[in-house]
UniProtKB/TrEMBL annotation:
Catalytic EC class: oxidoreductase
Gene3D superfamilies for the chain: 1.10.1530.10, Hypothetical oxidoreductase yiak, domain 2
Family: Belongs to the LDH2/MDH2 oxidoreductase family.
Gene (UniProt): ybiC_2
Source organism of this protein record: Serratia rubidaea
Protein's name in the database: Ldh family oxidoreductase
Statement: the UniProt record of this protein carries the keyword Zinc: no
PANTHER family found in the cross-reference section: MALATE DEHYDROGENASE (PTHR11091:SF0), OXIDOREDUCTASE-RELATED (PTHR11091)
Highest taxon, organism lineage: Bacteria
Enzyme Commission no: 1.1.1.-
């Protein structure tokens, strides 16, 4: 069994924050990243939890992320905003753009936010929840590095390209799904490699194009999309929407820019939000109730709603803390020296 250490959420945050500050990240960037990875750990999303601190510091040491860039907000059209992260992680750029973005969505009924020139390592549900908290419906996507082969191909081209969607629910946690368009996130495969565990079949192929359940072989070969050609089409859509449409990189361009340093992906994220109030006016309550019927019909068949697992885990972690593999804890501690 792997040795582990239990930390309160406060201890987890401070461990992450110290590692980032010791390596030169500004207070604001370190805070945003530490909050994000602590939330990942809290919600039982280890692939985007404290493990990500290793990649954040590595990206900085490789000169592939800015430690302190100031985001620049650009109001480019009545319903379109851009924020240039100027080479820093996406999180501070998003945090700074959020109030004006929400204002645009509420004024227009629908608006889009492009985060440009950002380094991206984080789970997208964390970008969706501040919008559902405002009663908005939201969609987000981002390319990553070319790691995933298109259905019918055998060479990495697409990123793991997550799509997240959120729907606000009165007096309940929102309906949120957040999924890589690859069979699993690359972070999951990295965690399998670190734990010496085989992958489930169908996640990837080795360098020679043969199906493989060995994490290291798949990391060196190519990952597969979920659902064959359907996941492949969605992965291509993410490349287009959060790449060329917003004047940013595809996953292939991001990997070329990385120049084999093994840093986090660089490029854009697109977030679209809609205000049910502006779509429905006085009928809002009626139609949100229809959505509730849909959710309860799903659950009555025994299906669980996406997001449910995370929201169940959250209060448990708040009460009991989180468990981190001892080896990972020591690696992050070592970054603080
Ligand atoms: P999963 O396959 O674990 O989960 C995807 C979604 O499906 C989640 O919303 C999950 O909800 C839901 N789900 C899982 N099992 C069930 C079930 N049995 N019934 C109903 N719903 C279910 O996630 P991925 O590996 O695809 O992605 C993990 C994370 O990686 C995401 O947060 C994503 O944003 C992040 N990522 C980030 C990238 C980036 O470039 N920044 C790139 C790729 C991934 P629940 O959470 O409740 O389990
Ligand atoms: O897990 O695929 C992934 C990923 C890529 C960028 C951030 N997470």
């Amino acid at each position: 069994m792997t040795a582990s250490i239990r930390l309160t959420l406060d201890q987890a945050y401070h461990l992450a924050q110290r590692a980032l500050r010791s390596n030169g990240f500004s207070a604001e960037h370190a805070d945003a990243v530490a909050q994000n990875v602590t939330a990942g750990e809290r919600d039982g999303c280890a692939s985007h939890g404290l493990y990500r601190i290793l990649g954040c510091v590595h990206s900085l040491r490789m000169g592939k992320v800015s430690a302190d860039a100031e985001p620049e907000l650009i109001d480019s059209a009545p319903a379109i905003m851009r924020v240039n992260a100027h080479g820093a992680f996406s999180l501070v750029a998003y945090r700074r753009a959020l109030p004006a973005f929400v204002d645009k969505v509420k004024r227009n009924g629908i608006a889009a936010l492009a985060i440009n020139h950002c380094v991206h390592f984080s789970a997208l549900w964390a970008d969706i929840e501040p919008l559902t908290e405002q009663g908005l419906v939201a969609l987000a996507c981002t390319p990553s590095h070319a790691w995933v082969t298109p259905a019918g191909g055998n060479q990495p081209l697409f990123g793991t390209n997550p799509i997240a969607f959120g729907w606000p629910r009165p007096a309940r946690p929102p309906f949120v799904f957040d999924m890589a368009t690859s069979a699993a996130a690359r972070g999951e495969i990295e965690l399998h490699r670190r734990a010496g565990k085989p992958l489930p079949p169908g996640w990837g192929i080795d360098r020679d194009g043969n199906p493989s359940t060995d994490a290291a072989s798949v990391l060196a070969g190519a990952m597969l999309t979920f659902g064959g050609h359907k996941g492949s089409a969605l992965a291509a859509m993410v490349e287009l929407l959060a790449g060329p449409l917003i004047g940013d990189m595809t996953s292939k361009e991001s990997l070329a820019f990385d120049n084999q340093t093994g840093s986090s992906p660089y490029g854009g994220e697109l977030i679209i939000a809609m205000d049910p109030q502006r779509f429905l006016g006085e009928q809002q309550a009626t139609y949100l109730a229809h959505a509730e019927t849909l959710f309860s019909d799903m659950q009555q068949q025994g299906a669980r709603l996406p997001g449910e697992r995370r929201f169940r885990q959250r209060p448990l972690s708040e009460q009991h803390g989180i468990e981190l593999p001892q080896a990972l804890y020591e690696e992050i501690e070592a970054l603080c020296q």
